[in-house]
Amino acid sequence: MTNLRITEHPILDIPADTKQVHVYFEGKELLAREGETVASALTSYGIRAFRTTRKRHEPRGVFCAIGRCTDCMMTIDGRKNVRTCMTEVKEGMQIERG
Amino acid sequence: MKTYGSDRGFSGEAFVPKEDDDVIICRCEEITRGEIRKAIYDGMRTISEIRRYLRPGMGPCQGMTCERNVRGILARETGLPLSQIPGYRPRSPQRPVTLAELGNESEEEGGGV
Amino acid sequence: MSTKMKADVVVIGSGAVGSATAYFLAKEGKKVIVLEKGHSIGCGQSCRNGGMNKIDGRGLGELPIAIYGLKCWKDLSQDVDTEYVEKGGIRIALDDEQQEYMERFLPFGKEAGLHLQSMTGDQLREKIPEFSPRITGAIYCQEESKMNPLKTTLGIYSAARRLGVTYVSGEEVCALHTRQGRIYAAETKNGNLYEADQILVAAAYGSRQILNTVGIDLPLYSYYEEIFVTEKIPKILDQMFVSAKVTYYGEQQENGTILFGGASGFGNYPNREWYPDSYQDRKRLPAEARALVDLFPCLADTRVVRGWGGWMDISPDDSMMLGETVEIPGLFVACGFSGHGFGVSVPAAKVTSEIMCGKKPGADISHVMYDRFSKHMDMFTGADRNHLINDIQKK
User: Fold this and answer.
1) Which of B103, C43, C189, C302 could be a cystine partner for C289, CB 3.0 to 4.6 Å?
2) What is the ipTM of this complex?
3) Do C307 and B91 touch (CB under 8 A)?
């Protein structure tokens, strides 16, 4: 999976030494940054489809990114319907679609 | 004088589809603009009726995303100003709460019967 | 500015019963006007209930109508999208006393043609392991069904409207009027008059006050109850479930959400002034949440998404009130559904439309007549009540 993380920015100060957190997306290990959301970690790897809708079978992912729209919900550590844009990554976290 | 929820007569004319009928308005329940317009054609004249008939605003986000748009469609279809169209009725819990948390009342915290 | 409208029939109350009666009457060619007090059609119990048709546990007087419903619902579903499915229902006992109480219904249900099966708590958990170990026994009824109350009520309204029924919302009836002893018109708070040869009062608890204006008093009391839905979760059961004494009820809907409601033990006679509208009370949801987790321990971490409530009209024997009033020819009632009316709304509406058209009702309604509680009619006419009821049915 490609890494879309921005390492240099003309205005924002991006610290290079943020602690890495290991999370697992459908069993596959991803490297996330401490303090970021699950949605952010998945997006950095180019994963945009977080779930598929029940009726029209269409992909959904980040939409509002502020915890309002519930489009970005995934199953985290066995807990269903968790808003990934509002959930901070934790070491060993298991992230599943559906 | 037209007021909110009035004018329920059936004209007998066929439903007229429009170009943007396939735009999704309620993302949670996957309801399109055309379905909402058809519900209004079928007789739904208030926000509550549209919500109950089609389910926009009944998904996990409880209308946070679609409310303004559904009100707008009803306003446009009935010719009423937006200010006359109320929003979805808010209900507890404001955000999803687990059954265990909701049921966990103690005397000290003013709970119990 | 007041208006006058005339029709063959005026129906007061646009809920499932009122709208379905209007629909059936319109199919017979009658010109019908439906008057709804609120802004929205069916905004009372019809659009607030859980959409569960329990048959086991109904008052025995309602049983013929519930059985008639097995046919009526299927017929209606050809024309209206009701999402009606017969997946069966489970009635739950938590001790031997409750089990014994439930089993009293078995001979009556079986005689009526229902498929009922008694089972132990262990046998229930073999089929549906998620049920709590607390449950000691259950009765399964094959014919019990679920439907979508919101889609059904508004779908019936839409179909009736297409058949030419006139609906007026925001129109509260304040008085009925008679002429030469026969029903004549309904007057509304807006100052409008709706004249008709036949009027049906299907306004739940509001029926009582409306009928008072022509000297009839039905023993109804109003009671508030709450209900909630959870987030969508994987399927754990297809059947609806109720408690032994039908104090709570629940189901898992097709989209995976669990719906649950019932009495919270908060009290049987809440003061209506404290709850002027369908206003949630902070004690009820927690009590219901505890009850659901008690029944399904695996649901402790499932989230409640929304709760709501509604007022029910309860009759002294928990059964509906139907029929043409003997006091005022042309005046019909259909109320007192006591919080479990939705499942019988369509057959009750069908028999009401049948007697309003002078036909023999498709089910025996002799045990749910509106006046079974009062002796008023006997004193007034000096006649035998059964004799008079037979006369109405013959008309």
Assistant:
1) B103
2) 0.92
3) yes
